[in-house]
């Protein structure tokens, strides 16, 4: 696993430093997979009735990465009707994911920036 992590760092850290955010990137199948992996957690954080106008969609649009003890993915998500949210999804070195932050009322043009982890999540995640 350590070899994989070192190889990842060698290939993917150009343009940003450990702990800092990468440049903005277009969404990929991996970012959509990350969103899908925490879909229920995201829906649980949305206000009641958020999806009443139309069925909710969670489509990743763009993202930035942060290397920590694993990876934080700051992802812009379209939820439908030109509404957007930003989420933070943490992925540990074993590939386990958890939603750690969400910001509502974003627009397509809002930059993806660091924000506080504000989602109550199971802290035993880190000890598994």
From TrEMBL:
Residues 19-96 form the Cystatin domain. Gene3D superfamilies: 3.10.450.10. Keywords: Cytoplasm, Protease inhibitor, Thiol protease inhibitor. The keyword Cytoplasm applies. GO terms for cellular component: cytosol. It is found in: Cytoplasm. InterPro entries: Cystatin_dom, Cystatin_sf, Prot_inh_cystat_CS, Prot_inh_stefin. The keyword Cytoplasm applies. It comes from the Eukaryota. Belongs to the cystatin family. This is Cystatin domain-containing protein. It comes from Magallana gigas (Pacific oyster).
